[in-house]
What we know:
About 50% of the residues lie in helices and about 10% in strands. With about 400 residues, it is of the alpha/beta class. It has 4 domains: about 30-155, Rossmann fold (3-Layer(aba) Sandwich), CATH 3.40.50; about 160-230, Helicase, Ruva Protein, domain 3, CATH 1.10.8.60; about 240-330, Zinc Finger, Delta Prime, domain 3; about 335-395, no CATH class.
Amino acid sequence: MVFNGFGKQYSPLSDRFTPKSLEDVRGQRHILGDDGILRRVLLTKKPLNLLFYGPPGTGKTQVARIVADVLGLPLVKINACKLSPGEWKKVILKITSKSTGSTILLLDEVHRLNKLQQEFLLPYLETGELYLIGITSENPFYTLSKALLSRVLPLEFKKLEESDVVDILKEAIKDEKRGLGALRISVSDEILYHIARLSDGDARRALNYLEVLVMGKKRPVKIEWDDVTSLGIAKPGISKNDFYDLVSAFIKSMRIGDREATVYYLVRMLKGGVSYRYILRRMLIFAAEDIGLANPLALSVAQAGFEAFEKTGEEEGKIILSMIAQYLALQRKSNDTVAYLKRVEKLINKGELEDVPGFLKHGERKSEKYINPHMDPKGARGQKYISDRLRDMIRGKEV
């Protein structure tokens, strides 16, 4: 809740238009679908310590509130970055002393807790006085202690698909109670998909864009390209199909080594409003998938470019994007990294499960002596780690 210039309370659309049930949530089908693990957990009505991690605007906080409603337990929300270590202890003691049963602690920015704060929380989780739903946009396996991780069920929230964001925007446009239905808005799917693309999978950001676009307009409201471009958040002339075509052309231009075409399609995407970070992620994938072992350093260069971009910002960052794209285009190419991976996955899925050779087994299970190649002049060439037949199939030879 915020205040406008006249002292009246005003709640942004992104705060008002939030899901009230699991059925209202868009995306996250891997955990909320009919066979999703979180949906199955909630059917038991038994509380668990949970950890939601993933990008902003993907529904983590709202799903946490829905979980509390489904379980019928009181919910206390705390932002970890707003509490000092001393305050943290007092708040936890206050919550547990007032509660006559279990309480769900919705802890935003959980990665901000230091090790001592995390350890102070552990006994309350073990007794069931508190059930934790931790929320973070960071990788919890790097930021949280092993002790806390062992007591929670980590669930990854993935970036929303464009179609999911568009569905949210359309629902907000129609809803008269919590959304913008009273404005009788008309807008093309092309513009909605463009807003979704600019939001980069962040529903909150997309709703904020939509709300700004209709501010001050008379009813019925019509959103056109001029409105979008006047905000500086979008450029006309790139439809959903154009987006995928340009991305495809950009990647294929790098793959063939056409430096000029690479830069051309890069700039076309940037002028069309494609997210800078989306392009950087595509180049990271390209470095591993299309250059791979022909030059493993390409991945390091692309990663360094990503980090440099984050430090410089979008305007100067264009120079970094151009540099990395041209560098990747000029490298020798090899797709063995992906080819080997896919062949092995296919073989294992088909049941090609050879027994581990005796000399490679662990400890007492060894039936032959392992020859360390560092200690053998011939490099232990006489020992076969997999069969010749399996090796040929991994290399792509017909057997």
